[in-house]
Amino acid sequence: MTNVNRRNWLKSSLTMTAGLMTMGYAGASTKFEEGSHIESILPKKDRYARLTSNENPFGPSASAKKALKAAIDDSFLYPREYRQTLMSLIAKEEGVTEDHILLGAGSSELLHAAARVYGGANGKVLSADPTYTSLVRSAEMMGSEWVKIPLDKQFDHDLSTMEYKVKPDISLVYLVNPNNPTGKIMTGDEIISFCDTVSAKVPVFVDEAYWDYMENPKGSTTTACIKKGANVIVARTFSKVHAFAGLRVGYCIAQPEVIKKLAKEGPRNTLSGPSMSAATASLVDYEFIKYSVKMNNEGKKFVYDVLEKTGHDYFPSHTNFILFPIAMESEDFKKKMLAKGVGIKSMNVAGQDYCRVSMGKMEDLEMFADAFKQVISTKINQS
User: Fold this and answer.
1) Which pLDDT belongs to residue 268?
2) Based on the domain organization, do 339 and 365 belong to the same domain?
3) Residue 349: which CATH number?
4) Do both 307 and 258 map to the same domain?
5) Enclosing domain of residue 370
6) CA torsion sign, 121 to 125 to 129 to 135?
7) Given this model, what pLDDT does residue 122 score?
8) What is the pLDDT, as a whole number, of residue 139?
9) Among the three residues 218, 252, 283, which one is the final residue of a domain in this structure?
10) Domain co-membership, 136 together with 259
11) For residue 5, is it within any domain?
12) What was the pLDDT predicted at 45?
C-alpha cells in the first residue's frame, strides 16, 4: 500500500469509526442489532442529567478539537515536540522557566506523585476538612497520617489554626483553592500570606483545579510565591474550564528541585501527542475560556434561583458546582434524584446532609430543578 493510499485509508477509517460512535451515542437501534459485537464495545451515552463530576459540558473548544484531529496523523511518533511546545507555552503563560513545570495526565498524577514524595510511613499531611481528598487518601494508603483541620463555622479554611498546627513533623500542607466541595475561596492576600509564612517551615501544595472560574484568578494564584523562591507547589488541570476531563492534561509549578523529585516519583511521558496539541490550543483560546465561565455563571444563577424559591440556603460558588444543605438523609436523597434521571453528589458533614450539584447544560439543570422540586415535595408530604 502506498503512503498516499495508506493515509486515505486511515482517514476514511477514522471517519467511519467516528460515524459509528456518533450513531452509537445517539442510540440508533436501527443501525445495530441488540447485543451485537460493535454495539457492545461502543461507549453508552448517559441517559440522565450527569451532574456528579464537575465536568464542563460546553467543550472542548473548536480550536482544541481542530488541534486534536490534526495531531492524529502524527500519533505513530513519540510526542516530544508536542510536549516541548506545551511546556514552553505554559512556562510563558505562568512567567517561569520550563524547569519549574511538570506535566501530568490531569492533575491526579501530580497529586499522587506529591503523596509519594511527601507521604510514607513517617509522613503527616495537614489539610482542611472537608476538602478534595485524592492527595491525602493516597498518602494515607502509603502509611501517612492525615491531620484534619475542620473548616470554620462559615465553611472557610481556618488558616490561623492550620498555621498553628504546622509542627516539625508535618511533611506537607495541602490547600484547595477554590475548595471542593464548598466552592469557597481563600482570597489572594490571605493565601499568599499563609504560603509565604508556612512554606518556610514545610512544603505547601495548592490545588487550583477550579482557578479559572474565580473572579480574579491571576490575583489569587500562589504562583507568586513560587516566583519569590518559596517552597510552594501549584497544580492546575485542563479537566474543568477547558473541558479535558477525558483527554487528561494537567501540570504543576514548583521550584526546579521539587519538580525533579515529583518527576522521579510521578508521571513519565503519560500524555499523548493529540492531547498535548489540543491543550496548547486551548490554553490560549481566551475567548473560549470566557465563554465557558459565562455559561457556567448562567447555570449557577439558574440553580441559585431554584434554591431561593424553594427556601434553601447555599454556598455562593467560585467553581462549576454548588453545595447546599438538604433536609433529607444524603444517600436517600441521591437515590431519589437518580430515580428521576438526575445524578448528583451527596454527603454528610458534621451531622448535616448536603447536595453538591455540578453545572450542566440548561436542559440538564432544568431536569435537576424538576426532580429536586418533586423529591422535596414528597419529603414535605411525608413529614
Assistant:
1) 81
2) yes
3) 3.90.1150.10
4) no
5) 287-382
6) negative
7) 85
8) 95
9) 283
10) yes
11) no
12) 55
Residues 256 and 292 in one domain: no
Please give the radius of gyration of the chain, using alpha carbons only, rounded to the nearest integer.
22
Q: What is the pLDDT of residue 55?
A: 97
Question: Can you tell me the distance from the alpha carbon of 248 to that of 105, in angstroms, rounded to the nearest whole number?
Answer: 5
SS (H, E, C) the chain: CCHHHHHHHHHHHHHHHHHHHHHHHCCCCCCCCCCCHHHHHCCCCCCCEECCCCCCCCCCCHHHHHHHHHHHHHCCCCCHHHHHHHHHHHHHHHCCCHHHEEEECCCHHHHHHHHHHHCCCCCEEEEEECCCCHHHHHHHHCCCEEEEEECCCCCCCCHHHHHHHCCCCCCEEEEECCCCCCCCCCCHHHHHHHHHHHCCCCCEEEECCCHHHCCCHHHHCCHHHHHCCCCEEEEEECCCCCCCCCCCCEEEECCHHHHHHHHHHCCCCCCCHHHHHHHHHHHCCHHHHHHHHHHHHHHHHHHHHHHHHCCCCCCCCCCCEEEEECCCCHHHHHHHHHHCCEECEEEEECCEEEEEEECCCHHHHHHHHHHHHHHHHHHHHHC
| Look-up of cell digits 455562593 | 316
Look up residue 334 and give its three cell numbers: 441521591
Count of domains observed in the chain: 2
Residue ranges of the chain with pLDDT lower than 50?
1-39, 42
Among 239, 266, 283, identify where a domain stops.
283
Position 15 scores a pLDDT of 37
Q: Is residue 2 part of a domain?
A: no
pLDDT at 44: 58
pLDDT computed for residue 190 by the predictor: 95
Give the residue among 117, 14, 125 at the shortest CA–CA distance from 71. 14
Dist CA 227 CA 218 (whole Å) = 14
